[in-house]
Design goal:
alpha/beta; 2 domains; eight-stranded parallel beta barrel; two-stranded antiparallel sheet; 17 helices; globular
Length: 417
């Protein structure tokens, strides 16, 4: 079976221009003695918006690997796919994120629920899971409720998995199950029964992305109780380690954290927990590379700043259209957005300060940053004007992209200081 490394990180790239800069960050980590496998990920929604294809992502990854002389593993992820669009990704990807959040809570076959409860009746009562602060106390009704809530979603994941296996062969790809894009978080107890169902269906999942408590918005930091997240994260790590043994799941099964993009306040508790449990992690950062492109353009001034201004003005004018697909993962105070006419008067330094994720900077504007995060369609429609600007500002753009991935993501989570 294709086996995902202990540490891996998803690096979405909206326009496929930053592969080398992204990989330079992973090379820095490798030089520090830490191997983190890069995973280029792009969703069907993103492909639709920028009019790209999964083969373009594969091509970007292979060009970057050759240019940087990367000799370690790397992957191309069909991100957040469903049975409706999986076929588009089959020829280009070797990592598949099965997004079944929409099926959570939907009624399935009652007989399957009955069979699940009967099959796992030995898991009721007091469950001692090593590493958890307290045992799970599971009643038959608890198990039934979990099955009724999640079994249909797992069955759907099984159908997607079978389609991929038919096309790509047994063991020829990495499977992730994603249940994070939903309203309610999943408790460690629910995660345990989800994993039991995953094993029953026969999915050799190597990562699973549950929904944690709190709010993970695009491009900005986590909003919620960091201590509560830390407790959930540790309990989930314990549950996964126990489930691997109980249900004969892949030994390298690990948590995936890919809600939102920047989760800086969570990186210290994540790092602490990984070392405590000697656990792996898959971390996703989609969208931040696109913002670093805009930062690099603005930093250069002149024509680069003019393009950055045009993108912001277009996003400001098309607020409703651009925000609608991301309504559940952004919190933008529209009335606090600076008008484009004012932004047009800013210096390069002022523009960069407003959208670079630095909460210690008085000019940092999370509203403007979130709007630009979802505003990449404006840049896509610019076509050559945008791509020519990226080419002309290549040094600044690449430096910002590499610095962001290494200093703000890889280093705080994976690398000993």
């Amino acid at each position: 079976m294709m086996r995902l490394e202990k540490y891996s990180m998803g690096i979405g790239d909206r326009f496929g221009k930053e592969g080398e800069a992204q990989l330079e960050a992973f090379e820095q980590a490798r030089q520090r003695g830490v191997m983190v496998a890069p995973v280029w990920n792009k969703s069907y929604r993103e492909h639709t918006i920028v009019q790209s294809l999964p083969g373009d992502v594969r091509m970007e990854a292979e060009f970057a690997v050759a240019a940087v002389n990367w000799t370690d593993p790397y992957y191309v992820d069909a991100d957040h796919i469903s049975l409706k669009n999986v076929d588009l990704f089959l020829g280009a990807c070797d990592f598949f994120t099965l997004d079944v959040a929409d099926f959570i809570g939907k009624s399935g076959d009652a007989a399957l629920v009955d069979a699940f409860v009967a099959r796992h009746k030995d898991l009721t009562g007091r469950l001692e899971i090593p590493g958890m602060r307290s045992p799970l106390m599971v009643t038959p009704e608890d198990m039934r409720q979990s099955a009724e809530k999640y079994l249909h979603a797992v069955q759907e994941a099984g159908r997607i998995y079978q389609r991929i296996r038919e096309a790509c062969g047994e063991g020829g790809f990495v499977t992730e199950i994603s249940m994070d894009e939903t309203v309610a978080s999943q408790s460690p107890q629910e995660l345990f029964f989800i994993l039991a169902a995953v094993a029953d269906v026969g999915i050799p999942a190597q990562t699973i992305a549950p929904k944690f408590s709190g709010r993970f918005n695009k491009g900005v930091d986590y909003q919620g109780d960091v201590m509560q997240f830390a407790r959930e994260f540790e309990d989930d790590l314990a549950v996964i380690a126990h489930a691997v043994k109980c249900f004969n799941l892949p030994k390298n099964l690990k948590l995936s954290v890919h809600s939102g993009s920047d989760k800086f306040s969570l990186y210290t508790p994540i790092r602490t927990a990984l070392r405590k449990f000697n656990a792996g992690l898959h971390l996703k950062t989609a969208g931040t590379t696109w913002l670093e492109e805009v930062i690099g353009l603005a930093e250069c001034g002149g024509a680069g700043l003019a393009v950055a201004n045009a993108i912001y003005a277009g996003a400001y004018q098309r607020f409703d259209e651009l925000c609608k697909p991301y309504a559940t993962v952004i919190d933008i105070r529209r009335e606090r957005l600076p008008p484009p006419s004012a932004v047009a008067e800013w210096s390069p330094e002022e523009f960069v300060a407003a959208i670079r994720h630095d909460e210690g900077c008085v000019r940092y504007d999370p509203n403007m940053r979130q709007l630009l995060h979802v505003g990449y369609k404006v840049a896509a429609e610019m076509g050559l004007r945008y791509f020519d600007a990226l080419h002309d500002c290549r040094s600044a753009v690449g430096r910002n992209v590499a610095h962001n991935i290494y200093e703000r993501h890889l280093k705080p989570v994976f690398i000993d200081r």
